[in-house]
Amino acid sequence: MRIGILGTGQIGGTAARLFASAGHEVALAHRGGPESLRAQVAALGPKARAATVDEAIGFGEVILLAIPWRSRGELPAERLRGKIAIDAMNPYRPDFSLYDLGDSTSSEEVARTFPGARIVKALNHLKANDLARRGRPEEMFERRTALFVAGDDPEAKRTVAGLVAQLGFAPVDTGGLRDGGKLQGAGGPLYIHLFAGAEAEGMVHGLRAGAPAGSEQPRAG
């Protein structure tokens, strides 16, 4: 699959390496332009290329949004219409406090910014070092580290879940952009916690049923 990656920081750069290692073609873009990415792309091997933002969007069957959340309005919204877009962003201010979104969620706001894009919330709840080292393609689902997925487009969510599984994680559905986003988004009860696949499914079921999260979090091995 061809994946356009917008943003090449800790999450975007880590995801690019994982996707390329899994056999996908990746086009990396950030505001510094393609020339600033030559060394990073060379380290990823022949599956990777540097691109402008517009080129990366045109290239990708799936687009990874990994720029600062506050900068999303700088992207060409019309170019993302109809694209599956993985929202890996979290609504942090420059001082690392969270924007007050009221009753909304960060991915609902992203969907408003990009009307017609098929937004799937994923790759946002793990720290970059956990994303980098916890993928275990050889493990069964129950023993893999969970990676949560939320969205309102079932087909898009299945596509992203398949990519998550190829990276060696257990894709666990938290629901739609609203309910799932509240669970896995920054400040939510699942954010930055590590769970094994089967434990994560039980945790999500309990949270969606209104049960308290509990003081002890199941840990992935």
How many DSSP H or I helices?
8
Residue-averaged pLDDT:
94
The value of Rg in angstroms is: 16 Å
Estimate what percentage of residues fall within beta strands: 15-25%
The overall strand count is: 8
Strand arrangement across the biggest beta sheet = 3-2-1-4-5-6-7-8
Describe the sheet with the most strands: 8 strands, mixed
Q: How much helicity do the residues have?
A: 25-40%
- Looking at the structure, what is the overall shape? globular
Distance between the termini: 30 Å
Q: What is the ordering of alpha helices and beta strands? A: EHEHEHEEHEHEHEHH
Residue stretches low in confidence (pLDDT < 50, at least 5 long) are 213-219
- Class computed from helices, strands and strand pairing: alpha/beta
Structural notes for this entry:
- Helix content is 32%, strand content 17%.
- It has 221 residues and is an alpha/beta fold.
- Strands 3-2-1-4-5-6-7-8 form an 8-stranded mixed β-sheet, with helices on both faces.
- Strand 5 (84-87), helix 4 (106-113) and strand 6 (118-121) form a beta-alpha-beta unit.
- The radius of gyration is 16 Å and the shape is globular.
- Residues 213-219 have low confidence and may be disordered.
Please specify the SSE layout and strand pairing.
Blueprint: E1 2-6, H1 10-21, E2 25-29, H2 38-44, E3 48-50, H3 53-59, E4 62-65, E5 84-87, H4 106-113, E6 118-121, H5 128-133, E7 146-151, H6 154-166, E8 170-175, H7 179-184, H8 197-208
Parallel strand pairs: 1-2, 1-4, 2-3, 4-5, 5-6, 7-8
Antiparallel strand pairs: 6-7
